Amino acid sequence: IPPVVAVVGRPNVGKSTLVNRIIGRRQAVVEDVPGVTRDRVFYEAEWNGQPFTVADTGGWEYGVKGLAAKVADQAERAVEIADAVLFVVDATVGITATDEAIVAMLRRSNKPVVLVANKVDGQSQEADAAALWGLGFGYPHPVSGLHGRGTADLLDVLIDTL
Ligand code: GDP
Ligand code: MG
């Protein structure tokens, strides 16, 4: 059974776009606005001869518990079954309360976390990525899931954690 990588992060940070980049085809649903009802979905992937399963997470509903709690709950279920986690943050927005809720859950999980500073489409967002050191998950790998910038280096690091 291939190892499982859970892709977690708040809505609209670019998780599904990154998943499509990793699996090499457009299969995960990319949404301009968050809130689409969809459970987590598994995709087969491979990098440097290492097969793995990617779990995209999404489909947040704005329920009584509030968005931050909902996101953390769903992400937690995916993380429980995962061997490693890609924690995606929108570097151009920075750290939000919802990101902090996910951080707390990831700390409790004790799973290996690779921090993704997404939407670093060019050199001008590199400083935004560096600000994410503050999350406490080590190097914020600067990536553009949309354009593919940095994703090869990210996958090299991810594979090393599996
Ligand atoms: P998710 O809710 O985390 O799964 O985010 P999506 O993958 O659905 O993307 C949300 C929005 O962000 C879409 O409009 C994407 O096109 C955009 N997006 C995703 N990745 C990038 C990126 O690397 N750079 C830029 N500029 N936009 C991105
Ligand atoms: Mg999505």
List the helices and strands and how they pair.
Elements: E1 4-8, H1 15-23, E2 41-47, E3 50-56, H2 67-80, E4 84-90, H3 97-109, E5 113-118, H4 126-130, E6 141-142, H5 151-161
Parallel strand pairs: 1-3, 1-4, 4-5, 5-6
Antiparallel strand pairs: 2-3
Helix pairs in contact: 2-3
Describe, in plain words, how this protein is organized in 3D.
With 162 residues, the chain is α/β, with parallel strands linked by helices. It has one domain (4-161): P-loop containing nucleotide triphosphate hydrolases (Rossmann fold, 3-Layer(aba) Sandwich). Helices cover 32% and strands 21% of the residues. It is built from five helices and six strands. It has a six-stranded mixed beta sheet, sandwiched between helices. Residues 59-64 have low confidence and may be disordered. Guanosine-5'-diphosphate (GDP) is lined by residues 9, 11-17, 30-32, 34, 58, 118-119, 121, 144-146.
CATH class: Alpha Beta
The parts where pLDDT drops under 50 for at least 5 residues are: 59-64
The helix/strand series, from N terminus to C terminus, equals: EHEEHEHEHEH
Q: Could you tell me how far the N terminus lies from the C terminus, measured between alpha carbons in angstroms?
A: 13 Å
Class from helix and strand fractions:
alpha/beta
The average pLDDT is 88
Specify the biggest β-sheet. Answer: 6 strands, mixed
Bound molecules: guanosine-5'-diphosphate, magnesium ion
Give a quick precis of the structure.
This protein has 162 residues and is α/β, with parallel strands linked by helices. The protein has helices at residues 15-23, 67-80, 97-109, 126-130, 151-161, and strands spanning 4-8, 41-47, 50-56, 84-90, 113-118, 141-142.
